[in-house]
Specification:
Layout lengths: L7 H4 L2 H25 L10 H31 L8 H22 L2 H26 L8 H25 L8 H28 L9 H29 L10 H30 L7 H23 L3 H32 L8 H23 L2 H28 L6
Helix pairs in contact: 2-3, 2-4, 2-11, 2-13, 3-4, 3-7, 3-11, 4-5, 5-6, 6-7, 6-8, 7-8, 7-9, 7-11, 8-9, 9-10, 10-11, 11-12, 11-13, 12-13
Length: about 425
């Protein structure tokens, strides 16, 4: 079986992409510090500014940093073409990183100025990403795994646009329509479209699935994944359009239900269909997939996240919504991002792509432990459990950083 390799040296210079990868452990450590110092405060009310700040440290500092790096690294190999001006990746990072920091500080401190600083840096950074990304995706309709990339980039554009508009509202500007609906759609599109699309493409690259024979039935499932995801990210945007232009009278009593119905097809695709295809591949492979325990854990957690989301819709207590976010973001998406981080570390830092280690197993155990501890801290509103979760997250971040150092050192190690 041919080995899938990304022509990184030509397409995305390592020095331009590395900062995205290196920021991921820093973001996890920051989440740990917040929980260690604030206790259960970010885990009791989904509308609190501290909760929103913590969420964006994870979604932007960890998940999005890694998925941006994954696009720059994997897209040239998937699409079979160069990405224009690959060194723009460094400009994207230089604009994106301070924007994320300012946004989280503004949300956590209830300050207007940092939020507008974030808008001023994130907007041009996003343009610097979308211009070469859209150019690279043109004319790739028949390319395997190009559809997930197109859906991911389109979803990222929609989620970022909605997010910037929501940030304007946080900064004191007049906000159109029900704020809860906008936040719900923003999270749904980012999670199921951007993260879900990149997860599908990344797993295809890492498992070398496009080189495997006998994919007939699975390719049908993948096509259905694309159709359902497209409907599930387009319908919520239509709902917001109707609300924005006053074509539908907003009703706080049914906005959550309307948003959930609109995103339902994407939820089926991301939380049920894609995990089914992924688990089937993991079971059918003639040789093991690197970091398979992370992928398997994410695929198993995906349906659980969907059930948690349904419970959060019908239960009035806020801790159900926070629990859903914790399972979906740190469980499903977090385990996927962790697997991608390990693969990117080997590719960018020069490690042996076929090397498994006890350190990797320990990082998986710590990830699952923090997931369980966090859920218990949410359920019982326990400050001690929240602080223990924070300490374990800091330990996990240090372990991630140590594995990156080990990957870099293995580049110059003699091979037998």
């Amino acid at each position: 079986m041919a080995e899938f390799e990304t022509p990184l040296g030509d397409e995305a210079p390592r020095n331009a992409v590395l900062p995205f990868l290196l920021s991921a452990p820093v973001a996890i450590a920051c989440v740990g510090v917040v929980l260690l110092t604030k206790g259960e405060a970010p885990l009791v009310n989904n509308w609190s500014t501290l909760t929103m700040a913590l969420t964006h440290i994870g979604t932007l500092g960890f998940l999005t940093m890694l998925t941006l790096a994954a696009f720059y690294v994997y897209a040239p190999g998937i699409l079979g073409k160069r990405i224009k001006a690959p060194r723009l990746a460094f400009l994207v990072y230089c604009l994106f990183a301070p924007g994320v920091i300012a946004l989280c500080l503004g949300l956590g401190g209830i300050a207007v100025t940092p939020v507008f600083v974030a808008i001023g840096t994130l907007f041009p950074g996003l343009i610097a990403f979308f211009w070469p990304a859209i150019a690279a995706l043109r004319g790739t309709r028949a390319v395997p795994f190009a559809t997930p990339l197109r859906l991911a980039v389109g979803s990222f554009f929609a989620a970022a646009t909605i997010g910037i508009w929501v940030a304007h509202g946080h900064g004191g500007m007049k906000f159109p329509g029900p704020r809860g609906l906008w936040l719900q759609v923003h999270l749904s599109i980012a999670l199921l479209g951007w993260i879900g699309g990149m997860a599908t493409a990344c797993f295809g690259v890492i498992s070398r699935a496009q080189h495997e024979p006998g994919q007939g039935t699975r390719s049908i499932a993948e096509r259905w994944w694309g159709h359902l995801t497209l409907v599930g990210i387009s319908a919520p945007c239509l709902v917001l359009t109707f609300q924005y232009f006053g074509l539908a009278e907003p009703s706080p009593a049914n906005t959550t239900l309307v948003g959930a119905i609109a995103v339902f097809p994407a939820a089926v695709a991301g939380f049920w269909l894609q995990p089914f295809v992924g688990l089937h591949r993991l079971r059918d492979r003639s040789r093991p997939v690197m970091d398979a325990q992370f992928w398997r854990g994410a695929f198993v957690l995906a349906p659980i996240a969907s059930v948690a989301g349904l419970v959060a819709m019908v239960q009035p207590e806020p801790h159900w919504r926070i629990a859903f976010g914790w399972i979906a973001l740190w469980g499903w998406a977090g385990l996927i991002a962790h697997a991608v981080m390990r693969d990117l570390s080997r590719r960018l830092l020069g490690g042996n792509a076929n090397r498994e280690s006890s350190g990797l197993d320990l990082s998986y155990a710590l990830h699952v432990l923090t997931l369980l501890l966090g859920l218990m801290a949410i359920e019982w509103a326990s400050a001690p459990l929240a602080r223990v979760t924070g300490a374990c997250l800091i330990a996990l971040a240090l372990l991630q950083a140590a594995r990156m150092v080990a990957d870099h050192q293995s580049k110059s190690a003699p091979r037998s």
